[in-house]
């Protein structure tokens, strides 16, 4: 995750990983962060990655794809 954070800080700009629109990088990052959080991994120090994920959660496609929104989601 530290390597991802370095790349995001160096190359990233805008609300998404690499600009003003979602890319495959965002599609890959969001579930990885969600799973890490679900497993209790401390991610507070990865500010840029967490900001991207927070922004993604406001996008309709990402919100609809969230695990908790799926019919087979088990708590």
What does this 3D model show about the protein?
This is Glutathione s-transferase protein (Partial sequence c terminus). This protein has one domain: Glutathione S-transferase Yfyf (Class Pi), Chain A, domain 2. Helix content is 55%, strand content 0%. The protein starts with a helix and ends in a 10-residue tail after the last helix.
Summed up, the helix count is 4
In terms of quaternary structure, the protein is: single chain
- What would you say the CATH architecture is? Up-down Bundle
Report the sheet-strand fraction: under 5%
Mean pLDDT: 95
* Number of E-state strands: 0
Query: What is the string of helix and strand elements?
Result: HHHH
Which CATH top level class fits? Mainly Alpha
Which percent range fits the helix content?
Answer: 40-55%
Unreliable residue stretches: none
What characterizes the major β-sheet?
A: none
Distance between the termini: 26 Å
Please identify the structural class as seen in this structure: mainly alpha
Kindly identify the CATH topology: Glutathione S-transferase Yfyf (Class Pi), Chain A, domain 2
The overall number of domains is 1
The value of Rg in angstroms is 12 Å
Shape: globular
Any key phrases for this structure?
Glutathione-S-Trfase_C-like, mainly alpha, Glutathione-S-Trfase_C_sf, 75 residues, Glutathione s-transferase protein (Partial sequence c terminus), Glutathione S-transferase Yfyf (Class Pi), Chain A, domain 2, globular
């Amino acid at each position: 995750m530290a390597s991802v954070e370095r790349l995001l800080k160096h190359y990233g700009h805008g609300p998404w990983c690499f600009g003003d629109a979602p890319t495959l990088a965002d599609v890959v990052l969001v579930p990885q962060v969600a799973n890490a959080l679900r497993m209790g991994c401390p991610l507070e120090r990865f500010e840029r990655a967490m900001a991207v994920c927070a922004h993604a959660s406001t996008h309709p496609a990402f919100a609809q794809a969230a695990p908790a929104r799926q019919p087979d989601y088990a708590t």
